Amino acid sequence: MKKKTVIWFTIPLLLIGFVIVKWNYISHSIEWKLNWMFEAPLPSKMETVFNTRYGFPNEGESFFVLSYRSIENKLMEKDGWIPINSESFDTVSNLLKRFQKNVANINKDSQNFNRLFHENPVIYNNNDRYFYKLEEDNSYILAISNTKERKLFVMEWIQ
After folding, report:
1. pTM metric for this prediction
2. How far apart are CA 79 and CA 114, in angstroms?
3. Tens digit of pLDDT per residue, the chain (159 long)?
4. What is the tally of structural domains in the chain?
5. Cβ neighbours of 63 (radius 10 Å)
6. Which of 156, 90, 158, 101 is nearest to 124 (CA)?
7. What phi and psi values does residue 45 have, to the nearest 5 degrees?
8. Which of 62, 75, 127, 154 is 20–30 Å from 108 (CA)?
9. Which range of residues forms the domain containing residue 14?
C-alpha cells in the first residue's frame, strides 16, 4: 500500500517538475506551431536573448537560442526547412541583417540590442538550414540552424 501511495505522489510531482523546467520551451513551441506552423525539436537548453513582446496584442520582437546534443537529423524530418547553400546564403544574411536592424531601430535602447546581437552571434554555414515565414501583416519568423555548434536561433518579429 505504501508503495502505491509513493508512486501516485511521485509520478505527478515528476510531471509537474518537468513542465516547470521546460515551460519556456513548451509555451513557445505551442505558439510557434499555431502562429507559424513551425516546429522545433525539444532542446537540451533554451536561452531567451531578448523578448519585447509584452501585453496585448503581444506585438514585439524575440530572439531565442536553443541548444541540442544533436540537431541535423531532427531538422531533416521537419517540413519547411530550406538548406543554406551558395544560392541561399545571401538571402539568409539579408533576412538576419534586416531583423537586427529593425530591432535596433524600433527600440529606444538600440545599443543594448546591438550588444546582445554581438554577444549572441548567429553563425551558420553552407549545409545548415533555415526556416522563414512572412505573414500578410509583415510579421515573420526566422530560424537558423547551426549543426556544427548544435544550435537553433529563432527570431520573431510580430506586428
Report:
1. 0.81
2. 32
3. 677 776 776 777 656 655 555 555 666 778 888 788 888 888 888 898 988 877 666 788 889 999 988 776 666 666 788 999 999 999 999 999 999 998 888 877 767 888 888 999 999 999 899 999 999 999 999 999 998 999 999 999 988
4. 1
5. 24
6. 90
7. -150, 140
8. 154
9. 2-158
